[in-house]
UniProtKB/TrEMBL annotation:
The protein's name in its UniProt record: Histone H2A
Coiled-coil positions: none
Region (Disordered) residue spans: 1-20
GO molecular function, one term: structural constituent of chromatin
Matches recorded under InterPro entries: Histone-fold, Histone_H2A
Organism of origin: Angomonas deanei
One annotated Gene Ontology cellular component of this protein: nucleosome
Ranges of Basic residues composition bias in the record: 1-12
Gene3D superfamilies from the UniProt entry: Histone, subunit A
Taxonomy, superkingdom: Eukaryota
Amino acid sequence: MATPRSAKKASRKSGSSKSAKAGLIFPIGRVGSLLRRGQYARRVSASGATYLAAVLESFLDRFTILVVS
C-alpha cells in the first residue's frame, strides 16, 4: 500500500543551517558567498567562512559590551 504524499513530507528531516550547526548567529552561508564573490582568493574553504563568521560574531559581541557599559 502506498503512503500519501503528506506522510512522506512529514517524515522528511528538516534541514539545519551551517550557523545552527556551529552555534553561531552570523550567517555562515552569506559570509562564504561574499568571500567567493569578492575574489579575495582563488578558493575559499567552508571552514574559512565559518571561522570568519565566528570572529565577526565575537568582535561584535565584545564591541556591544563596551558600548553598552
